[in-house]
Amino acid sequence: MASVSIPVAKPGLLSEIAGWLTTVDHKKIGVMYLVSTFFFFLLSGIFALIIRLQLMAPGMKIVDQNVYNELFTMHGTGMIFLFIIPMLVGLGNYIIPLQIGARDMAFPRINALSFWLLIFAGIVMEGGFLIGGTASSAAWTAYVPLSTKQFSPQSGMDIWLFGVVLLGISSTLGAVNFLVTIYTMRAPGMTMWRIPIFTWTMIVTAGMVLLATPVLTAALIMLITDRNFSTQFFTTSNPRLWQHMFWFYSHPAVYIMVLPAMGILSEVIPVFSRKPLFGFKVMVLSSILIGVLGFTTWVHHMFVSGVDPLVERFFMFTTMVIAVPTGVKMFSWIATMWKGSVSLKTPLLMCIGFISTFVIGGITGVIQGAIPIDMQVHNTYWVVAHFHYVLFGGSVFGIFAGLYFYLPKITGRMLDDKLGKWHFALMFIGFNLTFFPMHILGLEGMPRRIATYAADRGWDIPNLIATIGAFTIAFSVLIFMINFAIYILGRKGEVAGNDPWEGATLEWATTSPPAVYNFARTPVVESDRPMIELRAKAAGAKSDSKTSGGSH
Amino acid sequence: MLVPPVSQDAQVINNLYLILYVFSAIVFILVEGLLIFSVVKFRRRAANDAPVQVHGHAGLETVWTILPMVLVAVIFLFSVNSMGQLQATGTFNDPLNHVHGVNDQVAIKRVSEAKKVDVVINVTARQWVWQFKYADGFIVTQELVVPENKTVRLDIVSADVIHAWWVPALGGMIYVNPGEMSHVWFNAPAGMYYGQCNVFCGLAHSQMLSNVKVLPQADYDAWVAQQKTK
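The joint structure predicted for all components is written out below.
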C-alpha cells in the first residue's frame, strides 16, 4: 500500500502556509512543536556556548556580568520551558493518538491553542533581549526579593514572568487534553494494561502537570502583582514562601521532563532487543510511584535556607527513596536487553547514553540528598553537574532516541545511521567532558551563577575541559542537523515504510507519514503488543497464499 | 576530592562524603557493568535472531526493589548520624537555633547560651559585599580576620536580598535571609580560607567574596590594635 494516489490539485505555497497556521491536526501540530522547540534548543544552546566561553579561563570578559546573568537565566528557562518540556509534549502530540489507535486528540482546537500559547510565550520570554537588552537576570529560580521591583526593576523581568504564566496555561491545557484523549479515545480492546508504556508515562506526566503547574502559575501572578500593583504577597512575609511555591512546581518538573523520556526508552529498548519490556506492570507502577513521590521532595532545595530540622529529615528520606523506582527502571531496561538480540542502531545508542549517564545523575542525587553533604555542595557546580546528568544525560538523550526512532514515521524517510552514530559518539563524549569536571569544580568550592572567577582559585583546568566539551556537543548537534537536512529534507534517506524497526505498537500499523485520518479502519487491540499479532497475521496470510509455506 | 577540611564540621561532612562515595562506586560499577555486558554479549549477530520472549520475573523484580531500599535506608542512617555529630559540634544548620527573626530575643538568648565562644562578630551581607563589625566597634569588608584555634560565632544579617555564607574549608553553609539572623560557628588553625556568596544575589554576585584569614593570636591582636587606630 505504498502509493495510493488521490488526484488533488497541488496547493499553492500561501494556502500551504495557511494550512499549517490554522491546522488542528495533531500530527501537524506535533511537527510544529518539534520544529519550534528545536529552534529554542539551538538558541538556548548558543547561550550556553557563550557562558562556557566566558568561564573558559579566569577573568574572561567575553560579555558583561549583567549580560552573563541574563544568559544563564535564559539558558535555563529556555531549555526547560521552551525545549525539554514542549519537545516531549510535541512527540506525545504526534505519537500518542497513533499509539492508542485514535484519529486525533480529544480537543483538537485546544491542542492548537496550547501550541500557539507556547510560541507566544517563547517570544515574550526571549523578547526581553529585544526591549533594550533587559531580559530577566534573576536566575530561573527568580528568588524573592531579588526578583522584586526594588532589585530587578527592568521590564524584562515582568514579561519573563508573564511568559512563564502563558506557558503554564499552555501545558495545563495540554495535560487535560492528553488525559481526556487517553481515557476516552483508545482503540477497542486497549485495556489499561494494554496501554503502551510511552502513553502510560504521558498519563503520569500530565497528572503531575495538572497538580503542580497551577501552584507555579499562582506564585508568578502573585509576584507580578507585587511588582506592579503593590500587593504584599512576598515582600513582607516569610522569605521562604516563594521558594516553597516555586519548588513545589519545579521539583516535580524534573520528573515531568524525565518520565516521558523514560517512556521513550521503554519503547525503543524492547524493539531494538526483539523482546518485550521486562516487567511491564512494574514499569507502569514505578512511573506512577515516581509521579507521587515527585511531589514529596521539594524541600531538599531548601536544606540550607532555614527549614525546621525535623521537616528536613522527612524530605531527606523521600529524596533518597525516589531513587528506588528509578533504579527499578534501570534494571528493567538492562533485563530487557539481557539475552535479547540487541541491534546497535542510533535510537538504541541514545538509550544506552541515557542509562549510562542518568545513573550518575541518580547517584549524585542521593548523595546530595544527604543534608550534611548538601551543606557543602548546595548551589555549587556539583549541583550543575548533577542536574545536567539528569536533564541532558537523561531527557536530552531520551529526546534524541525518540527523534531517531520516530522521525521515519513522521517524515517517511530514514535518517542516516552512520551520521547518527557520529552524532551519538560526539555528543556522549562532549557531554561527559562538559559536565563531569563540574563535579570536581563544585567540590573545590566553585559556586554556580558566577560570571567570572579569580586565577588563584585553581578552577582553570576543569573549566577549560568543560568548554571544549560544550563545543563538542554543539558540533554533534550540527551533525544531526546535516543528517536531517540531507536525508529527510533532501529526501536522500531510504523510504521508511510503515514499520522500519519491527515496532510493537499501533503507530507502526499505519503509513509513514500517516494519512490525515491516521487509520483507515480503527484497529482492534488483542494484546499489549498489537503489532506482533498484526505482523504474524500478515505473515500467515502471505504463507497461506503460497502453497510451499516456506516462511522462516 | 572535597576542599581539604580544616574545621571539625567540614571534617564530619568529608567523612560522610567518603562513605557515600564507596556506596556510589559500587552502584556505578554494578549498573554500568551490567549495561556494557548485556550490550556487548547480546548484540544482534544474525538478521533473523529470535530471542526467547521473557515478560518479566517476579523474584528478580522484588530483589531489585528491596535491595535499593535497604541501601537507601543505610545511607539515610549514615546521614542522620552525621547530622547528630554536626549538632554536637554546635554548627549544624538547625534553624531553631541558627536561623531566626532578627528581633527574636528568645532565639538570640538560646544561641548565646548554646555554646561558649571566644569571639563574636556581627556580619552584614549586602549587594555585593560582606561587612564585619567587631566587638571593638570597627568595620572591615571583603576579608574576615579571626584568631587561630578560637571558637568564633558569626551573627549574620542581610541588608537587602538573600545571600549565603560559605567558606568551603570551614563547612557550614547557610542562607542569610532579609529579616532574619543566621549563625555560623567555627574554630580553625591559622591560614587563608577562600569563600564567597553562594546564592545568586544580582549583578556583581561573583565579586562578593567572604575570605577568612586566621592569624596566630599575637598577629591578630596587632591587627586589631591597628584597626582601632584607623
